[in-house]
Amino acid sequence: MTLSLLAIIPVVDDVLFNFAQSDGFWANLETAFGTSYDVVKATQLRQQWQSRNFSQLPPIEVLSGEVLGTANGAYSSSTNKIYLSASFLNTASSATIVNVILEEIGHYVDAQINQVDSAGDEGAIFAELVQGNSLDVATLDALRGENDQTTIIVNGESIQVEQANFTGTNGNDNITGTSGDDTISPLRGVDTVNGGDGNDLLIIDYSSNNYAGITGSSSYNSGYFEAYYNSSSYDQVSFSNIERFQITGTIANDNLST
Questions:
Q1: What percent of the chain has pLDDT over 90?
Q2: What is the CATH number of domain 1-165?
């Protein structure tokens, strides 16, 4: 384990301890993993985390960015390991690394308490909820519609994994990508995104019917998109070094220019 990870793991442990102690534990578990999970196994996990026993968590292995591709991290139930991208660790903030590790722990938890993989990116949902962040219906629907499955090659062996890219929060995020090909989904708030090098994809979903429309502009690989509720309330993404876009508009008449 790298020195940077040694400093971050206690932060992850604190988040899991606080989550296990919280009154909303069971409700949040249901939001992330559905209603058919194994309550006995979930109870065992909660009791272990309440006792600050995290020995059951999967080990972390750092891989080159070439192996993980666009993903910052991944979890494989077949190897029971969390994989993190070396290039991601070299450039990401501590808070971002914590979020990705929590997302992969979410995939691990799902594999322990559910017989079938939960729909969408349950890891991203788990990571938000355990950190005390709320997710609105539109964001939950978007995350549940994601396909986080892929295959990586480690030491010549094909391994099926659930991966993590850059996913923001409903707050105001500042997200910086890596030198690889990143997928960045900032979600809600007034966000600033820098894709860095590589062929980066920015995913924006403003399909919630609360919006009154989108405005924005871009030139080459920088600009902004803004979805507004009214003149004083809006979500916005200011971006730079973004090469590809996946934009879901509002129910109103949107105005986008490039």
A1: 31
A2: 3.40.390
